[in-house]
Fold:
Amino acid sequence: MKKLSIKSWALDDRPREKLLSKGKEVLSNAELIAILIGSGNREESAIDLSKRMLQSVEFNLQKLSKLSPEELMSFKGIGEAKSISIITALELGKRRHFENRLQNLKIGSSKDAFLMMQPVLGDLGHEEFWVAYLNNASTVLSKKQISKGGLNSTLVDVRLIFKRALELSAVAIILFHNHPSGKITPSLPDKQLTNKIKGAGESLDIKVLDHLIITEKTYFSFADEGVL
Structure:
């Protein structure tokens, strides 16, 4: 038996043609993934395979985006190229969502800052340190990844943080890093680093408004907790 290619399906069942004739909004998640992978395996169509993959993550695209290439390739019919296509599409969607959040975004609270960065940091399996740069109206000018580390620590170059701040003429910054463990309690090194960056900012008249530790579902705010 040959693989069931999308081209061999009945016209009404072809997701590509359905997208062209009816619009992208009418396609299910399984149909969108089926377009990405193009074909299934000897036993199931691309849509059936896509449905089975989604079922394995409770039909949750966020959980699907966490699967590694090796985990995706454990599904019969998904090779390296198809796994990379799925990962790439989900990552593009994530970045689009993040860019939309940044447009003329004003930060009025720690929750605003958390909602901005949670899609970026919340589901990572390693630690990253980011900085958001703000003007005097508390509008986000830019965000930048400063470092990327292992599960327990990340190396932060304070000079790099303020080099970008000066380039943007930013008057304030917010610090972010994630805890893959899910624990939001700041460590002693977290506190020491925060104080170091705060002190450097004071000499340049650039205020550190907050430092957020982010997990998948919640966060810790140094400013809210009075430890900044």
Remarks:
- The two ends are 65 Å apart (CA to CA).
- The chain has a mean pLDDT of 88.
- The first helix runs from residue 15 to 22.
